[in-house]
Amino acid sequence: MKDWLNFSNKTLVREIAIILVIKLICLMVIKAIWFDAPTIPKDIDHQVAQHIAGMPSASQESSR
What we know:
The protein is mainly α. The protein is 73% helix and 0% strand. The chain has one domain. The protein has three helices and no strands. The termini are far apart. This is DUF4492 domain-containing protein.
């Protein structure tokens, strides 16, 4: 009976590992497709757009 349990555990571990690898690959593909770069909406104030993109505006640089 121990041989059956040992075989079953090895199979289960292998199946779970394969499923986890497939899920990780799917998550990486989703991240690459939808979250590759920040997006800036078209109808937005220039200063807010620069803040969202991470670029300091000229008024912020001059005050420093």
